[in-house]
């Protein structure tokens, strides 16, 4: 099944603690249907003291968000995505609101 979100897309979070936040997708995990958005859904991870890191400490990391809780940003607002196939056989993602092209999905078949 094609995904409505791809790496490098600008997205807005539509549900959860980070609702309304806008960021760029840095990673898409297709097995768990999750995305990691730069600067959004930050969590603090505590590190144990080790020989390499004798002080221990804390690190802030971006936690994954389920793909259903993000939408592509078109003109500053979230939009659903439609998939259209052109006459030349190229499949593209198109925003439902405004009809802007969000990028090519696949090339012509054959």
Question: Can you characterise this structure?
Answer:
The chain is mainly beta and 110 residues long. It contains no helices and eleven strands. The protein has a six-stranded antiparallel beta sheet with strand order 6-3-2-1-7-8, with no helix packed on it. A three-stranded antiparallel beta sheet has the order 9-10-11, with no helix packed on it.
Class computed from helices, strands and strand pairing: mainly beta
Report the average pLDDT across residues.
88
Q: Roughly what fraction of the amino acids lie in strands?
A: over 45%
Helix coverage percent of residues?
Answer: under 10%
Physical arrangement of strands within the biggest beta sheet: 6-3-2-1-7-8
Element pattern in H and E: EEEEEEEEEEE
Quick one: how many beta strands? 11
Number of helices: 0
Outline the biggest β-sheet.
Answer: 6 strands, antiparallel
Low-confidence stretches: none
Q: In angstroms, what separates the terminal alpha carbons?
A: 20 Å
């Amino acid at each position: 099944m094609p995904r409505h979100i791809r790496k490098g897309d600008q997205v807005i979070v539509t549900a959860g603690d980070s609702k309304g936040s806008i960021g760029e997708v840095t990673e898409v995990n297709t097995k768990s249907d999750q995305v990691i958005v730069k600067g959004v859904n930050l969590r603090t991870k505590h590190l144990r003291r080790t020989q390499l890191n004798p002080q221990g400490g804390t690190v802030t990391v971006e936690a994954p968000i389920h793909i259903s809780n993000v939408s592509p940003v078109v003109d500053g607002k979230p939009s659903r995505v439609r998939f259209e196939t052109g006459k030349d056989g190229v499949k593209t993602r198109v925003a439902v609101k405004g009809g802007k092209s969000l990028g090519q999905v696949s090339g012509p078949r054959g």
